[in-house]
What we know:
With about 600 residues, the chain is α/β, with parallel strands linked by helices. It has helices at about 15-40, 50-85, 100-130, 140-150, 170-180, 180-200, 205-210, 240-255, 280-295, 310-330, 370-380, 380-400, 415-420, 425-435, 445-450, 455-465, 485, 510-525, 535-545, 560-575, 575-585; strands at about 160-170, 220-225, 230-235, 255-260, 260-265, 265-275, 305, 335-345, 350-360, 365, 410, 440-445, 470-475, 495, 525-530, 550. The strands form 3 sheets. It has an 8-stranded mixed beta barrel with strand order 8-9-11-12-13-14-15-16, surrounded by 6 helices. A 5-stranded mixed beta sheet has the order 2-3-1-6-7, sandwiched between helices. The longest helix is centred in the N-terminal third of the chain and has 40 residues, at about 50-85. One magnesium ion binds near residues 474, 475, 495 and 531.
Amino acid sequence: MRxxxxxxxxxxxxxxxxxTLIYTVLAAICLILVSVSLIGQDSxxxxxxxxxxxxxxxxxxxxxxFLMTRKLTRPIRQLxxxxxxxxxxxxxxxxxxxxxxxxxxxxASMRLMVKRLRLSTAETRQLANHDLITGLPNRxxxxxxxxxxxxxxxxxxxxxxxxxxxxxxxxxxxVNDRFGHETSDTLLKSIAHLLIAASPCRNDRENMLNAAADxxxxxxxxxxxxxxxxxxxxxxxxxxxxGALADRLHAAVAGIVEATGRQFRxxxxxxxARYPVDSDSxxxxxxxxxxxCNHALALPVLTKTALFQxxxxxxxxxxxxxxxYLRTAIAARQFEVYYQPKVSASSWAVTGVEALVxxxxxxxxxxxxxxxxxxxxxxxxxxDIGLIVLDEAISQCAAWVRDGQTTEVSVNVSVEQFQxxxxxxxxxxxxxxxxxxxxxxxxxxxxxLATTDVAGVASQITALRSAGLSIAIxxxxxxxxxxxxxxxxxxDILKVDRSFVTGIDFEGTxxxxxxxxxxxxxxxxxxxxxxxxxxxxQVAAAAQLGxxxxxxxxxxxxxxxxxxxxxxxxxxxxxxxxxxxxLAASGFVxxxx
Length: 593
Ligand code: C2E
Ligand code: MG
Ligand code: MG
């Protein structure tokens, strides 16, 4: 039912009317006094009596006036005080009803104003402290809570203890790329909900209350950003207890989770750091937990959990050192491209090379890509390095063409490079710059990149292929790709990962898997390259299973340009090498000459 709106300051409630009334009363009093004095004169009273009475009347009216105005201005003073408190940000003020005069109206308006202010402050607070997608406390709220907790002392003077769980939801980004924001947001919300239920935060409401309880050490799950959540558990430092909670969290999300009608089996990686055990700084504890999470990610187990250890710091230091010398190396162009040959599995002639980058460090000597490419990808330097390699490889390929040596060159490309919308244009511009035939250049992308629905991957592949370049899927068999998705893409070469080569030369699973992969590649109309062959029997097995080209230490390790040219010329001039390889492949001899 709608409440009847009262109109303040109407009729008798109007201050003007009240003052008029007061003055009427006062005037009446004066009249009465004067009349009384006149009656006194008639009865023979002295001359001073009316004067005295008039003075008394004056005092009485002045006193009454004073009392009246005090009564009238008291609510104004009270309201002024209240307004001052509101101005100071105190919204828990109580504004009394007062009367029904204009001041009462002012008080009512102020009550409404405070109510609205409270609402909008709560909204602003909600926005500032909560994540819009999950409704969880956000990174800033988490920071405030951790800063209050970590490094503080309890009532007995003991340092506060607890642990911070850094949780990364694996594959969430992929879900986002493949199925869009709505699905990934819903999935994220469901996962957060499951994690809360499995943790001491118990339920979403309690989690919110815990986060709002300023100064109280309570468990809270917060959204850190992207695919990451952080669970703060005060008073838990025992590794056994931490391990048990981590297991519960893994188990909570291990089942099928539905989002927008699709089913997912999410997985998480958890890194944990403790305070004050690992540090008494909120930022450090968070950073260590994130670092432990990175370690957990690399663990080859299903329940990826890692408790922070100080030697993990070494990994950060190494990364920083690598980043530093990568920057110097880019400026000083200290990179060198090595070439590893690929050999035809039928003619045993050299068909091409794979360009593999190395870093010539002034103190450390030659540093392999395994050490610096992941760091370059992480710190955003891969684009610069990739450009150096592409430029060098394409220019070298063109130089060999000019020398009458047609050698295909394949170049590895990282996700970050490929995600750059101008990548295909850059490659095409380099081909033009060096007058290099496009059909001699292959771009190697990993299986995971190929099956990522990152906008633009398919269009980059199309642009490169229409310009005449080939696309190779590198390290095939390691990315657990969705084959349907993979086969929807157009590529020319499939490189079987070298992990399959171990055991290829024996009857058994490895050999059968390799056979199936090679067959799959052939059925897709691709050239199949087997890489990582080290022995003659592996070369023989790869050839017998029907691959087109073979690459591996058996033929040669990656070489400097001049060493490769010498190796290639020797092999071209002396066909005995190819013949021996052929014999090795057929099982007659056991080693290359
Ligand atoms: P990849 O593209 O799969 O290259 C093949 C790697 O296997 C090379 O390692 C090569 O030396 C090694 N290999 C070849 N045959 C054998 C063998 O018979 N036995 C053994 N044990 N290893 C063999 P490398 O040069 O250390 O490169 C490692 C990875 O670094 C490459 O794997 C590639 O993913 C990446 N990489 C290399 N150069 C570049 C580059 O210019 N850009 C990018 N984005 N990545 C690169
Ligand atoms: Mg490669
Ligand atoms: Mg490879």
